[in-house]
Amino acid sequence: MTAGVARRRGTPFSTRPGFLSYGLLAAFFVAGAYPLWWSFVVGSSDTTALTSTWPPLLPGGRFWINVGEVLNTVPFWLALGNSVIVSTVITASVVIFSTLAGYAFAKLRFRGREGLLVFVVATLAVPTQLGIIPMFILMKQFGWTGTLGAVIVPTLVTAFGVFFMRQYLVDVIPDELVEAARVDGATMIGTFWHVAVPAARPAMAILGLFTFMTAWTDYLWPLLVVPQNPTLQVALSQLQSARYVDYTIVLAGAVLATIPLLVLFVAAGKQLITGIMQGAVKG
Questions:
Q1: What is the DSSP-derived secondary structure letter of residue 195?
Q2: Handedness of CA 67, 68, 72, 76 (dihedral sign)
Q3: CA 234 to chain centre
Q4: Model confidence pLDDT, tens digit, residues 95-144
């Protein structure tokens, strides 16, 4: 209707993106996808691909040979299983606890709410590296070093997740809807489950995606606490421990480690787009 009114009044109006929009999207896509493609090209070639004057653009025929070298050099399947367990548990915990805390900060009234929220947000300003030494000492006192629990427990909930869910839920759920659920006899947990969770699903999907990606690519902390029971990133770093580094093998391993993230992005793409669109409409 708006476009029809604009045309009748002689005002040029179109909701379709123009050539500039498509050009910028194509440029961003190429800039983002080229490093992964180049890693696959080199990971499927021999060492001559790195010494050639012009970098190759087409993959070679040695990808599976290089993958075999990765599997023979590092405990890939053990590390893959550890990364799946760590990333899945951390993601589920962060999403659940962040949604609970975000709902409490957004819709519940209790003494000290604002001050506690400021404290949670203020922890984001503390560099993670400052807590590594005391956290390592604490894990050692608990006897958890060398176990996956030392990687999982410190990140069961994050300040960013709490703040993110609070900011989303504070506007997407009307106070009248919460009060109506209370009047109908719903308990606090029932109101959260039947009112907050359905409304928060797009944000939960986005938070889960980013949390899984962060846990999957984490390197420093797992390197310190589980060097003998490694996650995938720690295991792949062993490909560079020798005096001579074959980067075709290293990049083949990097491509293998990226495949689960690509699958996750494809699977969660619908929820990701839904969350972005809802945020745009709300804004």
A1: I
A2: positive
A3: 18
A4: 999 999 999 999 888 888 889 999 999 998 888 888 899 999 999 999 99
DSSP H helix total and E strand total for the chain? 16, 0
Helix runs in the chain, H state only = 2-8, 19-43, 48-51, 63-73, 76-107, 113-122, 132-142, 149-152, 159-172, 175-183, 188-191, 197-217, 220-225, 232-237, 247-267, 269-282
- Only one residue has tokens 């689960």, namely 260
For residues 53 and 33, give the distance between their C-alpha atoms in angstroms, rounded to a whole number. Answer: 22
What is the rounded radius of gyration, in angstroms, for the C-alpha atoms of the chain? 24
How far, in Å, CA of 121 to CA of 207, rounded?
A: 16
Residues for the chain: how many in total? 283
Question: What is each CA distance from 66 to 50, 148, 181, 190, in whole angstroms?
Answer: 15, 29, 59, 53
Q: What angle do CA 281, 210, 66 make, to 5 degrees?
A: 135
Which residues, including other chains, have CB under 8 Å from residue 115's CB and lie 6 or more apart? Answer: none
What token pair was written down for 139?
Answer: 């894990």
In terms of Cα–Cα distance, which of 98, 73, 133 is closest to 203? 98
Model confidence band, residue 162 (pLDDT cutoffs 50, 70, 90): very high
- Provide the pLDDT for residue 2: 47
Q: Cβ distance 195 to 129 under 8 Å?
A: no
Q: Report yes or no: 260 and 85 within 8 Å, Cβ to Cβ.
A: no
pTM of the full structure: 0.83
